[in-house]
Amino acid sequence: MLKFLLEKEFKQIFRNPFLPKLIFIFPVMMLLIMPWAANQEIKNIQLSIVDNDHSSWSERLVQKVMASGYFIVVDFSGSNEEALKSIESGKADIILEIRPEFEKELIKTGITNVMISANAVNGTKAGLGSAYLAAIMNDFADDITTEGGLHTSKGNTPIIQIIPHNKYNTHLDYKVFMVPALVVMLLTMIAGFLPALNIVGEKEAGTIEQMNVTPVKRIQFILGKLIPYWIIGFVVLSICFMLAALIYGLYPVGNLLTVYLYASVYILVVSGLGLVISNYSDTMQQAMFVMFFFMLILILLSGLFTPVSSMPDWAQLISRINPLSYFIQVMRSIYLKGSGIMELLPQLFALGGFALFFNIWAIFSYKKSN
């Protein structure tokens, strides 16, 4: 009986002129565009410079800031008031004001001040932009101190050089961090939305009535709905792996079979959730909106864009019952750190529990009337 149910589901999928195209085109478009758009690296910060000194050293500082690659100098203002107008109009994000006695104070006392004014409407951009500028100032101060020979004279404080060593993402490329998580989001949307529209679609078409009068058991019916999307999930996942390797040169450090193992459980989780929603919905529109409601919450509280540890306590508590957050941890750990099953056993137990819960719920919530 299950064989015929599966045959029916696959025929319905391939007869649909849109679904096969979606299964192949959606992963391609998502991985081509999203890693570049969903990027929290702060670059191209618009900078307005107020140089009240016009000395060789102030010019050197300006050149160092421009050479950093993080800032775009939009104008050289004659005063702080003029530069503030650039911020108010949205032309500039940050103002760097150099004092009139900048070079003179450096030569005389070795100490001087500069003022950084940031537009804090976007707090992240203001904070990171100011931090970048402060780091450039410190580097500039080290350069001129070293050139003056102050570090080599007797009795001076020793200099501690810090050499950072970045593990798992050597070049701090944000795309390396985002691609595994975007694969999870893509898998969630395809393996979640399609089952959510399946049963309710048959209700609207009237074909569910023919199924209800057959001797098909509820567990066979739900398995007939789950297995095709389970296979489709593997196809989508394989496409994503190939795209990640070809476009971004990103290969899993860990075992690829471990990823497929966790994915096989995770697909059952989101497909089971989709079937539960489909069982309770009366129209496809209703199912789509309910699924979208849950997807939005799951994605925002998954750690996809911001770390779960940075969220409030109540949000961290919700993330513990969020299957998406567990699979994102798995994907990033296997892809970037090379973690194995033993290190990820808690996530496996959690996803297994979610899979049992949602699929048992889907079986019992399907109302079969003879």
Features:
370 residues; alpha/beta; 4-stranded mixed β-sheet; 15 helices; 4 strands; 6% strand
Written overview of the protein:
It contains 15 helices and 4 strands. It is α/β, with parallel strands linked by helices and 370 residues long. A 4-stranded mixed sheet has the order 2-1-3-4, sandwiched between helices. The radius of gyration is 28 Å and the shape is elongated. The two termini are 17 Å apart. The model is unreliable at 150-157 (pLDDT under 50).
Unreliable parts: 150-157
Rg over CA atoms, rounded to whole Å, is: 28 Å
- The helix-strand sequence is HHEHEHEHEHHHHHHHHHH
Helicity level, as a percent range? 55-70%
Tell me the number of strands. Answer: 4
Determine the strand fraction and express it as a percent band.
5-15%
Distance between the termini: 17 Å
- Average pLDDT level: 86
- Structural class from helices and strands? alpha/beta
Total of helices: 15
Principal-axes geometry comes out as elongated
Biggest sheet record: 4 strands, mixed
